[in-house]
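Exercise: predict the fold of this chain.
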Amino acid sequence: MISAVDKARAAWGPQVPDWVERLAEECMATSQNKVAARLNRSASLVSTVLGKTYAGSYEAVEEVVRGVYMRATVRCPAQGEIGANTCRDWMLKAARFSNINSERVRMYRACRACPRYRKEATDAA
């Protein structure tokens, strides 16, 4: 059975990005399912990223991996310094308004006014 690290190296070649290598190492240390759960993503997403066959945004996955496993942070206008993965999750929620609670409304407004969110919306168009 091929290891997650070997799978990533075979797919990405000698220049495996550091965040992909870290993702593979975490899969080896626990399991792909546990890593996916910690990232709040699916195990198939993790597998396709390691195999370099993911059809979505690698930048988005990179930000989540860096936030969860590499402690990358960003400056949030509403919450101060937060994990990059937390920022990404709030941006996804800000795509649709929901008045489920006051924090969700506050973060919807903050995200929609944030330059990071506007950059994501511009890049997607």
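Check your answer against the key: The chain has a mean pLDDT of 92.
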